[in-house]
Amino acid sequence: MSRQFLFDGQPVPFEDGQTILQAAHAAGHYIPHLCWHPDFPPHGSCKLCIVKVGGRHVSSCALPAKEGMEVESNTPEINGERRALLQMLFVEGNHFCPSCEKSGNCQLQALAYDLEMLTPRFNHFFPDRPVDASHRDMLLDFNRCIFCELCVRASRDVDGKNVFALTGRGIHKHLAVNAESGRLADTDFAADDLAANICPVGVILHKRVGFAVTIGKRKYDAKPIHTVALEEGE
Amino acid sequence: MDNAARDARRPKLRVATTSLAGCFGCHMSLLDIDERLFDLVELVDFDRSPLTDIKHCGPCDIGLIEGGVCNAENVHVLREFRRNCKILVAVGACSVNGGLPAQRNHLDVGACLQQVYQYREGVAGAQIPSDPELPLLLDKVRPIHEVVRVDYFVPGCPPSGDALWKFLTDLISGRTPRLSHPMLHYD
Fold first, then answer.
1. CB distance A126–B98 less than 8 Å?
2. Is the pLDDT of residue B2 over 70?
3. Chain B neighbors of A128, CB-CB under 8 A
4. Which region is the signal sequence (chain B) (predicted)?
């Protein structure tokens, strides 16, 4: 008999080494996440995947499933906390969806829809984050960065190029380009790198293809992210 | 008493609307409810609104605010609405998060004005308008919840006519207004 834990009251089977998030997704239960990616080890920074296990908050992307765990995820309390995290992300950067090429394909936006975020609630920071359009094929719009480090990890661990890094601490943390000049054009970054195609939001964009897909046909237009993610194994 | 008779006896709700730093796109969206406008005017009377041309807001049940707060006049109008409306609603991206006008927020206001009125090609010798009738710009464009308390938010650029209809009919009939996929969108 396979081992199992309880996810929002439903039995979910798991294999040794599977995290709560992996086992839940395999069983058809979506857990919201931004910094987690199926091809990378857990990062545990965005905290969208928090669940309650035995009354404690844990990152479900990082915690291995255990026999008999009682996991709470899709509850008003946890979803309220997730919504607050999203609201903080929205006011900390400049997320102006109507002019963003990623709109409709953006995980941050799709999660905010899914968690019914109607207002950013907090006061906006309106930070000044100039874009980097120096590269021939790619554009960097730092206004939308959520510090998930997926580009950093992809460039370092898969592409072997180390193009990106997070630098600074606390509110001064920001994405940096690893070149003497700080410009993307002065790196060996290429449009077919994994790092060029992994950004969950609208920071790393391909030039000359913006708004190619009409409204209504974009990734999260027809179905919400909790459906799309499970269908596509994300 | 049947429902029709009960509805006829119920006093109409009073609704005010305005556009602050907005493009009137959200008002256009309200008109996009099309023939349901006839149903709406059975349920509500309009107070101050671009639809009535009434200049000041009296006591109202619902105030719909389009646009963010970009100048001193916007602040006065918004406060007038808050004082007079039992329920204040932020309608559209600009009132919810500042929207397009807020894209100037990382620029210096003075430099913006100079660029537009003085340094642009073909405007040699021009000055920044300084008529005292003109409201002064704020240093940053703010969403309305950063200036007054807001009861409900309807995001979208603009929210669709269907979304506004769903929101208003929920609100008017005493249900908790709820917009879910795909009526909830930010673009």
1. yes
2. no
3. 106
4. none
Q: Do B140 and A126 touch (CB under 8 A)?
A: yes
What DSSP string runs through chain A? ---EEEETTEEEE--TT-BHHHHHHHTT-----SS--TTS-----S-TTEEEETTEEEETTTSBP-TT-EEE-SSHHHHHHHHHHHHHHHHHTT--GGG-TTTTS-HHHHHHHHTT-----SPP-------B--SSSEEE-GGG-----HHHHIIIIISS---EEEES-GGG-EEEE-STT--GGGS---TTSGGGS--SSSSEEETT-TT-SPTTSSTTTSS-HHHHHHHHT-
pLDDT tens digits along A101-115: 999 999 999 999 999
B187 in reach of chain A (CB within 8 A) = yes
A-chain CB neighbours of B140 within 8 Å are 126
For B100, the closest chain A residue by CA position comes to A96
CB contact under 8 A, B97 and A120: yes
The reported pTM is 0.95
Report the residue of A87, A96, A103 to disrupt the B interface, i.e. the one with the largest count of B CBs within 10 Å. A96
Q: Which of these CATH numbers, 3.40.190.170, 3.10.20.740, 3.90.1520.10, 1.10.240.10, describes A4-74?
A: 3.10.20.740
Please give the residue that has the higher pLDDT: either A170 or B142. B142
CATH architecture designation of domain A97-223: 2-Layer Sandwich (3.30)
Q: Are A161 and A193 in contact (CB under 8 A)?
A: yes
Residue contact A97–B100, C-beta within 8 A? no
Smallest CA-to-CA distance from A191 within A166, A209, A179 is with: A209
* Domain B3-102+136-172 bears CATH identifier 3.40.50.700: yes
Does the distance separating the beta carbons of A221 and B180 come in below 8 Å? no
**Contact status, residue B85 vs residue B63, Cβ threshold 8 Å:** yes
User: Domain-by-domain residue ranges, chain B?
Assistant: 3-102+136-172
Domain definitions of chain A by residue range: 4-74, 97-223
Cβ of B187 and A118 within 8 Å? no
Say whether residue B122 is in contact with chain A using an 8 A CB cutoff: no
Kindly tell me if the per-residue pLDDT of B5 is higher than 70. no
| pLDDT tens figures, B35-79 | 999 999 999 999 999 999 999 999 999 999 999 999 999 999 999
